[in-house]
Write a structure and sequence with these properties.
This protein is of the alpha+beta class and 215 residues long. It has 2 domains: 4-80, Ubiquitin-like (UB roll) (Roll), CATH 3.10.20; 94-212, 2-Layer Sandwich (Alpha-Beta Plaits), CATH 3.30.70.20. Helix content is 21%, strand content 18%. It has helices at residues 22-28, 82-96, 113-121, 158-166, 200-204; strands at 4-9, 12-17, 54-57, 64-65, 76-78, 140-143, 146-148, 171-174, 181-184, 210-212. It has a 5-stranded mixed sheet, sandwiched between helices. Strands 6-7-10 form a 3-stranded antiparallel sheet. A hairpin with a 6-residue loop joins strand 8 (171-174) and strand 9 (181-184). Helix 2 (82-96) runs antiparallel to helix 3. Bound molecules: FE2/S2 (inorganic) cluster.
């Protein structure tokens, strides 16, 4: 078992277990750091794909991802600075330029991580300077208990991990570049796979792409 260490985040002195990732140490102490792809259960092998959890650590030459950086004794961490805010805003805008925004009718509205990040960091949900890239992919209603809307997927990979660890491993990331998406093997509808309908994918989806229905 690890030992407790002391560190400072945004001027607040906190304690954490040595080696725990700074993201979780901060969140447990009510210090918000934007994050989409990180899952606490997976902190030993973080995916680090969303690039929203940037922080600065005194003594390090450039920003690092809080979800991959282990907490060490005496660390001094800052979650906000001009360059961090710029990096986070740029990353968030890129994600949002590819996210179908329909908050007024979205079932995830109110519990959506994208709304939370926008509010916390005072960033517009709809990027001003980037063209909205709507892919108009069909929604998958084939499974009675889950609706999958790939147009809202932010490619964080949480559902893929959850499906592998708690479900029947039917979800994966496929294709490259702009075509990249979460889909099933062979790109077949969820209802035609071995999906058990456990809902673990919808439970971890931060953006309303996977929604559990009442069925
Ligand atoms: S939460 Fe750290 S890169 Fe996504």
């Amino acid at each position: 078992m690890g030992k407790k260490i002391n560190l400072t985040i945004d001027g607040k002195k906190i304690q954490a277990m040595e080696g725990d990732k700074i993201l979780w140490a901060a969140l447990e102490n009510d210090i918000y750091i934007p994050h989409l792809c990180a899952m606490k259960e997976q902190q030993q092998s973080p995916f680090a794909g969303c690039r929203l959890c940037f922080i600065e650590i005194e003594g390090k030459p450039r920003p690092v991802a809080a979800c991959t950086e282990p907490a060490l004794e005496g660390m001094v961490v800052n979650t906000r600075s001009e360059s961090i805010d710029r990096l986070v805003e740029a990353g968030f805008n890129l994600i949002m330029s590819n996210h179908h925004i329909d908050c007024k009718i979205c079932a995830a509205s109110g519990a959506c991580e994208l709304q939370k990040i926008a509010k916390e960091r005072k960033i517009r949900l709809k990027p001003k300077k980037l063209v909205q890239l709507d892919r108009n992919l069909p929604k998958d209603h084939s499974k009675d208990c889950i609706i999958y809307d790939p147009n809202k997927c932010v490619l964080c990979g949480r559902c893929v991990t959850a499906c592998r660890t708690e479900g029947t491993a039917v979800l994966g990331l496929a294709y490259r570049g702009f075509e990249r998406m979460v889909t099933t093997f062979g790109d077949i509808p969820l209802g035609e796979t071995d999906c058990s309908g456990c809902g673990s994918c919808a439970n971890v989806c931060p953006a309303g792409a996977l929604i559990e229905t009442d069925n």
